TrEMBL record:
Record-given protein name: Four helix bundle protein
Biased composition (Gly residues): 60-82
Region of interest (Disordered), ranges: 55-82
InterPro entries in the record: 23S_rRNA-intervening_sequence (IPR012657), 23S_rRNA_IVS_sf (IPR036583)
Signal peptide start and end residues: none
Length: 82
């Protein structure tokens, strides 16, 4: 039951992130930030799905629904040297 709540919440979060990014994109501000927010916000559901799949594959009785959003989270930039 708890896993379904987590899946449902992550799906709703991804939808809200999508709408937020579209609203901000219409203003043509911060496209790099918007793209990162969209990737990271939607990757939560994919990570939950992957964790559930790995748990079931190991035989650890994880039940409960499929994953949420798509997209993988992009990597962050590297640090600069001195």
């Amino acid at each position: 039951m708890k896993e379904n709540l987590l899946v449902d919440t992550s799906k709703q979060f991804a939808v809200e992130i999508f709408y937020l990014c579209n609203a901000i994109r219409d203003r043509k501000q911060g496209n790099a930030l918007i793209n990162q927010l969209l990737r990271s916000g939607t990757s939560i559901g994919a990570n939950i799905h992957e964790a559930n799949y790995a748990s079931r594959k190991k035989g650890g009785g994880g039940g409960g629904g499929g994953g949420g959003g798509g997209g993988g989270g992009g990597g962050g930039g590297g640090g600069g040297g001195g």
